[in-house]
Design a protein that fits this description.
Length: about 190
């Protein structure tokens, strides 16, 4: 089936590399849905068997960056959200109830990242001085959130243009057309304390 999208593995790797480059070593991952029902902690094996390839591919990209930085990927807990405030808040509660807190959170969508920042703010945890947060997608709200969200911006206008051109028969797409995304560094990331 023809498809136009972004390099989820490579772009997620770039997000994690940004944080490892700042010196972060304690991570947590807020996943988008792996299936339609579960919320909460998941294992690496469960992520690898995900029904939705986008979530799986983004986790693989994060793990690649961790390994390149000498960080055990299994040291970064993964929490599956259903991309709602309620599920993200539940995951944040679980994340911060356990042992050593992360200094950086990799969220697989900007919406989840902004819900996480809201939860952190409500619990007196500063972003980015206490915890850095990176999103994924580049939604317009990420540029005006407080703090402004560091994100992997997808080339939405180009994806839409190419999809319309393909549908109109002007630029046929065979297989998968993968477009690059861009890391947009804003205020939600900083070196760890």
């Amino acid at each position: 089936i023809p498809a136009i999208g972004v390099d989820n593995v490579g772009r997620a790797r770039a997000a994690a590399e940004h944080l490892t480059g700042l010196g972060h070593r304690r991570f947590a991952i807020l996943s988008t849905a792996l299936d339609d029902f579960h919320v909460g902690a998941v294992s690496r094996e469960e992520v690898q068997k995900a029904r939705y390839s986008t979530s799986r591919d983004r986790a693989i990209g994060y793990w690649q960056a961790f390994e390149a930085a000498g960080i055990d990927p299994d040291s970064a807990p993964i929490f599956e959200t259903q991309e709602s405030a309620e599920s993200t808040f539940a995951c944040m509660e679980a994340m911060f109830a356990e042992g050593e807190r992360p200094t950086a959170i990799l969220a697989m969508s900007d919406k989840v990242a902004m819900y996480a920042i809201d939860w952190l703010f409500r619990h007196g945890i500063n972003v980015p001085s206490d915890v850095s947060v990176v999103g994924f997608d580049g939604v317009p709200e990420s540029a005006v959130s407080t703090p402004k969200l560091t994100t992997l911006a997808q080339p939405m206008a180009e994806i839409a243009r190419r999809a319309v051109a393909a549908a109109m028969g002007e630029e046929p797409v065979e297989g998968r057309l993968i477009l690059p995304g861009e890391l947009v560094v804003r205020e939600s990331t900083a070196p760890p304390k």
